[in-house]
Amino acid sequence: MMDALRYEWVRLRTIRSTYWIIGIALGFQLAMSFLIGALAGDDAGGTDSFAILVTIGASTGFAPLFIAYVIGLMGVFSMGHEYRHGMIRATLTAVPQRWAVLAAKVLLIVAVSAACALACVLIALLSATIFSIELPGWGEVLAISSGTTIFAVLFSLSGLAYATITRNQTAAVALLLLVPTILEGIIKSVILAIHAASDDPTGKGGGVWLIKYLPYDSGGQMYTRRSLEDLLEIFGVVPFGPVGGGLVMGTFVALLLAVGSYLFLRRDA
Amino acid sequence: MALIEARGLGKSYGSKRAVDDLSFTVKPGSVTGFLGPNGSGKSTTMRLMLSLDAGQGTTTFDGRTFGELRHPMRHVGALLEAKPFHPTRRARDHLRMLAAANDVSTQRVDEVIRLVGLESVARGRPRKFSLGMGQRLGIAAALLGDPHTLLLDEPSNGLDPQGITWLRQLLKHLAGEGRSVFVSSHLLQEMAVLADELVVIGRGKLLANGAVADFVTSSGLGTVEVVSPDMATLGPELESRGATLVAGPGDATTVSGLDAAAIGDAAHESGARLHQLTTRQASLEEAFLAATGLDEEFRGGDQS
Ligand SMILES: Nc1ncnc2c1ncn2[C@@H]1O[C@H](COP(=O)(O)OP(=O)(O)OP(=O)(O)O)[C@@H](O)[C@H]1O
Ligand SMILES: [Mg+2]
């Protein structure tokens, strides 16, 4: 296992994409949080401003958590590069224990994605300090920070799982970008449309309960604060809280990884 | 040092049997050539030996499977068909990465870079490498752990003539040190000078496993050139003993189906004088074509 970790660590450090991915995530965070900080001015404060600063608007439910998509590419590339360039055969001749190879990838993607997301949180804190935006209580600061970080980590792991399952980097990138945005969006709209046309459009019946099990949407509850989703409550949609949402997303990612490992341990390299 | 034993290797792609119940042995201290026509399953066999492909059978290196080896690159060095490099990871970093998993020093990384002659591009990216440079990087990776066993799939692919000569000397030298060298190739002339032992396959099945000389002799393709002033007597005598005679070259007659000793005996018994008796061994190429002729899948169309 240590050998696999060493391999994976050198692998990550000797590939250019690692650097540009982290660079884009931090650069974006820096530019946007300073922009928001400058525009918000002294009067802003409380829960919402800090959440907006950390998630660059995603906490409102109006925007996706951009840094997760960028960091998620690292997860996809972790396995995607192996198949894209036939590296998997070199990897498995250097470390034949497939479970160790996969475990090392998961561990390092968790560590590096978390570090990168935390750095983004620190940038938001810096911006809040510089532009003297009032922070919410420490409990809330911690909740927003950990929620954002955990979401980014799980998002990245789902990318790793897509690449492991499809053995195709391009397909995995497409899945990572489309499943949370388009696919979940479509499912949600279809359920709501059917529900709205039903006899009891504001009830909790029908299929609306399904909506809270959409994994990425649900995971978003970890960093979402004043949400657009609240508007949906008139249709009987009651989303999970941050913990429940995180568990739904975590379970989904664990299942994806389980399928990925099952296939990876059995098939041709 | 390292005896390779492959037992019952098998692999199907859909309904196609790429490798079928293949068993063979590779002895240390020799270069063992792995021969077979295109698509006969050589590369698939090598991947099976390294447990890269899921299939049947086991391969052991001194009794242990590849997956059971700790720091496998220090036991078995492999060069596979497809070049497994990330196009933008520097050559030296690629080797450092493999070394990191196998407790191989950075000093050794620089050593193999020098050994394969890639010093000038060690910090270059494989995307810009020529076919031969990529092949050299692959050979460097195989040699990285100073392994006692080498599995090389068409290592001379893309090498220039100097490179091929260098590789041949290197492999012979490594085998001379007592290592096991298992190398597949299409170049039969190259194999004839390189290999001591052979594993020959056709359509995924074993055709021969043994010394090169035995393989060539057992093909029965050797001939003897006979010059005799009494050919009128000797000719029918030889034919009656099952030989086939062809006139030439020059005033000699080429006899196949009998060896020189049998021909000498026949001449003695029939009272024919012999002026010349020259044994001509079949070439490895002839023996190979004869052995695989019926098995070749993608035979070229007839020219006529
Ligand atoms: N990934 C694959 N999917 C389907 N069929 C395959 C695959 N790899 C190999 N084959 C088939 O298996 C057979 C053996 O192929 P293999 O590459 O092992 O032959 P080879 O002896 O190495 O050929 P060559 O001399 O051309 O390198 C071929 O018929 C090939 O078409
Ligand atoms: Mg091949």
Draw up the topology in text.
The complex is a heterodimer of chains A (269) and B (304).
Chain A: H1 2-13, H2 16-40, H3 46-55, H4 66-84, H5 87-94, H6 98-130, H7 138-166, H8 169-196, H9 215-219, H10 242-266
Chain B: E1 4-13, E2 16-26, E3 30-35, H1 42-49, E4 56-61, E5 76-79, H2 91-101, H3 106-115, H4 131-143, E6 149-153, H5 161-176, E7 180-184, H6 188-194, E8 197-202, E9 205-211, H7 212-218, E10 223-227, H8 231-240, E11 244-247, E12 253-256, H9 260-270, E13 276-280, H10 284-292
Parallel strand pairs in B: 3-7, 3-8, 5-6, 6-7
Antiparallel strand pairs in B: 1-2, 1-4, 8-9, 10-12, 10-13, 11-12
Helix pairs in contact in B: 2-3, 3-4, 7-10, 8-9
Descriptive overview:
The complex is a heterodimer of chains A (269) and B (304). Chain A is mainly alpha-helical and 269 residues long. Chain A has one domain (2-266). Helix content of chain A is 72%, strand content 0%. Chain A contains ten helices and no strands. The two termini of chain A are 19 Å apart. The mean pLDDT of chain A is 86. By secondary structure, chain B is α/β, with parallel strands linked by helices. In chain B, the strands form three sheets. Chain B has a six-stranded mixed sheet, sandwiched between helices. A four-stranded antiparallel sheet of chain B has the order 11-12-10-13, with helices on one face. A three-stranded antiparallel sheet of chain B has the order 2-1-4. In chain B, helix 8 (231-240) crosses helix 9. The relative contact order of chain B is 0.15. Chain A binds chain B through residues 3-4, 6-7, 9-11, 14-16, 81, 85-90, 92-97, 266-269, and chain B through 47, 50-54, 66-67, 69, 71-73, 76, 78, 80, 82-90, 93-94, 96-98, 100-103, 141. Residues 42-43, 81, 153 of chain B line the site of magnesium ion. The site of adenosine-5'-triphosphate (ATP) has 10 residues of chain B, from helix 1.
